[in-house]
Every structure is written in structure tokens, then in C-alpha cells.
Specification:
Blueprint: E1 7-10, H1 13-25, E2 47-51, H2 58-67, E3 77-80, H3 82-85, E4 88-91, E5 101-104, H4 119-127, E6 134-138, E7 143-152, E8 155-159, H5 166-186, E9 198-202, H6 210-225, E10 232-237, H7 240-249, E11 253-255, E12 258-261, E13 264-271, E14 278-282, H8 290-304, H9 309-325, H10 341-352, H11 366-382, E15 383-384, E16 406-407, E17 420-421
Parallel strand pairs: 2-10, 2-13, 3-9, 9-10
Antiparallel strand pairs: 1-14, 1-16, 4-5, 5-7, 6-7, 7-8, 11-12, 13-14, 15-17
Length: about 425
């Protein structure tokens, strides 16, 4: 992250959503002041990229972003999130156990005016880059059936009404959305989806391996760069690889024959512990490393004392990745040379597994919090990371506004590409 990175604090998701719209829309001009003699325009961005861990409020933010338009001229946002996936339901034919299909809610604006648009072929063009199954859509019956060509006894045959996996289902819904997205980004006045001014996409890569994650990001970036009708995008994700691929794909010219640069704004979003306050960190022109953001979150939790079960799991995950990075097999190797090396590993093994579920409501005891702080501190001393201040403290003596962003007073130092190891 750049040394010039800024952190802003927001009191609600509503004010944060308004900030994102402002980033996309731009500012027409600044008022004259004693220092500014004239007005200058701040151009809007084509896309805002958000990285945030699960639980930070990404899905609720997408809803707040969409709902802002309800107070104006009406719907203006096409979105992909958990609500989009709820538009598709399985009917598994429990009585006969033969006809398995997906029912979809065609009354949703998401499906409006799709029949007769030849959407099937557009979906297949995306789907067959990732999967080998096929489908038929019946808009009149509001159903989708899946089939796959298989070989039995040396002969090819079609397996009808198959049940696809959850990962394949998520992938199909995503490809369905991409086909609609293409219509929206090409729509002229009077055509279907001409109402779309913004597209909000939240975590489109569930259950995908790294290869498919990169492919999905590249496909999406191509659509964004090829948009000709001014549609703007917000993309939020908890997946570090997806974020970085999108960041790098959305660089430079829109197309070889287009001299206009694509404009994108990358952020890291944090929810401040159990509060309803949020910080937004501008990563500037350097892709961020998601483990740095995770460590910043852990340090903030350690400092505040609001340590939850998922913080233990997150710390263990970082230790595992660090060990693997250095060619080791066990998290204890992250503490080689320290007298409590075995104790640290044993504690995290117990605290991250066994009866301690992610969903466990049991409170974290003071002794466990103390050990968490000790392990985290030992790790951060051994591996030197420059961590952003996700608490984003405001300037001393200045009161914060009730709504809207509060600029942090301190620039964030650059994060190294790899940790600097202090001990052998």
C-alpha cells in the first residue's frame, strides 16, 4: 500500500454507500475559497473495488447502495449478492427422485424482459469456460433443467435432469448474471436494462478454485472495460486473489482503439469490532496484500480487547500460510527459537478446533485473550509488517461530524511484499 494511503471513518453503511456513489459520479466543481480561486472538476471512477473480510457488512452495504435510488427517480442498480442467489431454488423431486430442476422467480426485476432475448447462448459462452454441463431454460414454467453428455459402454448419451454441485450452481448463477450484465452495459435508451446506472457485485467467486477465480476476474474486467454507455461498478470481495486480479486487470486503456484510461478506486473496508462504525482505506496505486489487512484487524482487536473466536481462527490461518511460504509444515516453526514455541502452537490448535466452533457463543476468557495478545505480539516482532491503523483515530481536539467520512490524520506506511524475518 502506498505511503499516501488515507483512511476515512464512517458512522453508518448509509453514509459509506453515499461516499461510493460520489466516487463513481465525481464532483462537478469545488466552491471558491480564499485558497482556491476557481472551481475544478473531479472526475468520477468507472469502478470501485472493495476488500473486506466476511462479517464486515458487504452485503448490507450493497443493499444500502441500491436503496439510495428509492428516494430519487427509482431503481438504478443491478446487483449480484446473496439476494440474487435466493432468486434460484432447487426442486429435487423427493417423491419420484428423477426430475431435479431449479425454479426461478421471474417476477423479479432481475429477469424482466429476458424471454426471447437469446440469453441461453450468452450464458453458455461464459459457463463452458468453467464447466462441462449444459442447461435448458423455460421462462414460461420458470424453471431450469441441467444435463450432461456422458459415455457409457463406449457410447455417448445425455444424462437428463442432473443435480449439479453447489459450486457448479453458484457458477451457473454467476454466468446467468454476466449475460444480463452484458445486456445492461450495451443497453441504449428504450432497450431492456436501460435503467441500470450502477452495478454492485458482492463476492462472485464462492466455491471456485484459483484458476477459475482468475478467469472470472478477467472476464468481468473485460466487460467493465468494454462498457460504452456509462454504467458504473462497485465490486466487493473477501478474496485477496480476486481483488488483486481485478485491480491489475482494470489498468490502462479501455481498449486498443480507445485512448481513455479505465478509472478505478481500490479500498480496504473494515468494521470496527462490534460497533456500527466502518473505516475505508484507500490503497492508492499499489495492490494490497490481504494478510496485511487481516493482521491489522487482529492488532486492532488485541488493542481493544474485543477478541472473538474468529480472531483465533484468522491468526492460525495466517501462521499456516506463513509457514508454507517459508517451506515449513507446521505453525510452530513461525516461533523457532522462542521458549514458548510449543505452547503457542498447542494453544492455537486447541482454540481453533475441538469444541470451539466458529458459531460458539461462549465468551472468550481473560486468560485466553492474554495468550492471544502474546502470540500475536511474538509473531509481529519476528516478522516485521507495516500495518495500517484500521481504528482510524481522528485528530485530537477536533470533533467528528455525525454523518459522513472523518479523514484520518496519519498516512499509512507502505506494506512490504513479503515479511522481513528478524530471527533465523
Amino acid at each position: 500500500m502506498s505511503a499516501s494511503s488515507k483512511i476515512a471513518k464512517f458512522r453508518s453503511l448509509k453514509s459509506l454507500a453515499a461516499k461510493l456513489r460520489k466516487d463513481l459520479r465525481g464532483v462537478r466543481g469545488r466552491k471558491k475559497t480564499a485558497k482556491i480561486k476557481g472551481t475544478n472538476q473531479i472526475k468520477g471512477n468507472d469502478c470501485v473495488l472493495l476488500f473486506a473480510h466476511n462479517g464486515a457488512g458487504k452485503t448490507r452495504l450493497s443493499t444500502e447502495f441500491k436503496d439510495i435510488a428509492k428516494k430519487g427517480s427509482g431503481a438504478d442498480t443491478l446487483y449480484f449478492n446473496a439476494f440474487t442467489e435466493d432468486l434460484f431454488d432447487w426442486d429435487n423431486d423427493f417423491e419420484e427422485d428423477r426430475e431435479r430442476l431449479i425454479k426461478f422467480k421471474s417476477k423479479s426485476q432481475f429477469f424482466k424482459d429476458l424471454e426471447g432475448m437469446g440469453l441461453d447462448d450468452q450464458i453458455r459462452a461464459h459457463l463452458h469456460r468453467h464447466a462441462d454441463f449444459n442447461f435448458d431454460i423455460n421462462f414460461a414454467e420458470e424453471e431450469i433443467r441441467f444435463f450432461r453428455d456422458v459415455v457409457e459402454g463406449g457410447k455417448s448419451k445425455r444424462a437428463e435432469d442432473i443435480k449439479i454441485s453447489r459450486g457448479e450452481e453458484n457458477l451457473f448463477i454467476w454466468c446467468f448474471f454476466l449475460a444480463i450484465l452484458q445486456l445492461a452495459t450495451e443497453a441504449e435508451k428504450g432497450q431492456p436494462y436501460d435503467w441500470v446506472k450502477y452495478v454492485y457485485i458482492d463476492d462472485p467467486i464462492s466455491s471456485l478454485d484459483e484458476h477459475n477465480t482468475i478467469t472470472v476476474a478477467s472476464d468481468l474486467a473485460s466487460i467493465i472495460k468494454g462498457t460504452k454507455n456509462g454504467v458504473k461498478f462497485v465490486i466487493s470481495t473477501h478474496h485477496g486473489l480476486f481483488f488483486n486480479v481485478m485491480f491489475n486487470e482494470l489498468k490502462g486503456k479501455r481498449a486498443p482503439d480507445d485512448n481513455n484510461d479505465i478509472r478505478r478506486k481500490p479500498y480496504i473496508l473494515h468494521r470496527l469490532n462490534d460497533t456500527l462504525s466502518y473505516t475505508l482505506q484507500d490503497t492508492a496505486e499499489s495492490p494490497f496484500l490481504h494478510h496485511v489487512a487481516a493482521l491489522a484487524e487482529l492488532k486492532a482487536a488485541s488493542k481493544s480487547g474485543k477478541i472473538s473466536q474468529h480472531h483465533f481462527n484468522l491468526l492460525r490461518s495466517i501462521l499456516e500460510k506463513t509457514a508454507i511460504f517459508f517451506g515449513r509444515q507446521h505453525i510452530s516453526t513461525c516461533f523457532n527459537g522462542l521458549p514458548r514455541k510449543a505452547l503457542y502452537a498447542r494453544f492455537l490448535n486447541v482454540r481453533s478446533h475441538a469444541k470451539y466452533s466458529v458459531f460458539e457463543a461462549e465468551p472468550i476468557h481473560a486468560a485466553d485473550k492474554k495468550m492471544f495478545r502474546e502470540i500475536l505480539a511474538a509473531f509481529l516482532v519476528r516478522y516485521e509488517f507495516d500495518l495500517p491503523d484500521v481504528l482510524a483515530k481522528k485528530q485530537t481536539g477536533k470533533s467528528a461530524p455525525v454523518a459522513g467520512p472523518i479523514s484520518a490524520t496519519k498516512a499509512v506506511p507502505a506494506a512490504p511484499a513479503t515479511p522481513t524475518v528478524k530471527t533465523p
